[in-house]
Amino acid sequence: MIKMKIPRWLLIVALVASGAGAAAGTVLSGEITGEVNVSVSQPLSVERPTLTNIPSGRRWFSAANDDGTNFSAATELYQGESAVIEVPITNTAEVDHVVDITVTPPTFSVPDGADPSDYSITLEVDGSGAIDDAVRVGANKWKCTIDADSQGTDASPFDGIRITVALGDMVPPGYYEISGGIQIAAY
Fold this sequence. Notes:
The protein has one helix and eleven strands; from the N terminus they run αβββββββββββ. The protein has 187 residues and is mainly beta. Strand 8 (135-138) and strand 9 (141-146) form a beta hairpin. Strands 3-4-11-6-9-8 form a six-stranded antiparallel beta sheet, with no helix packed on it. It is elongated, with a radius of gyration of 29 Å.
């Protein structure tokens, strides 16, 4: 057994310092100001959509916003035609997520005196790859499960959703934009 002698002054300083730390906390309480860079990210993100099943020679456009929660696609369609918008979705979390999908259909004016049901635009949303099929829960809302291993365009077939847009026989021809977004469902 080794005996060490601790100087008395060191022992007193240590005891005072440990007690003083608690006392200094109350003396120094107050406000601290400054800036902290914070980055918030979500585990789900949409990639730039692709339009398929559109007539040959038609131009189209699509985009996804920077935070990966919203998308938009546009193309020219005529009466009775349809297009499919493929929206890849990635999930970087280690768990599945139930999401709310909102799709905003194109709008147009129905002529005075016409039956609005003759001027219909049909939207259907289905899953692709690791994404479960979507279930419609409202006029323009769907829910589906995004699997933990959802890899967007890196998967084959792609992991995401397919939105089919079909114009009725009386819908005027034109350029139509379909936009939408995803968010983790709140319970």
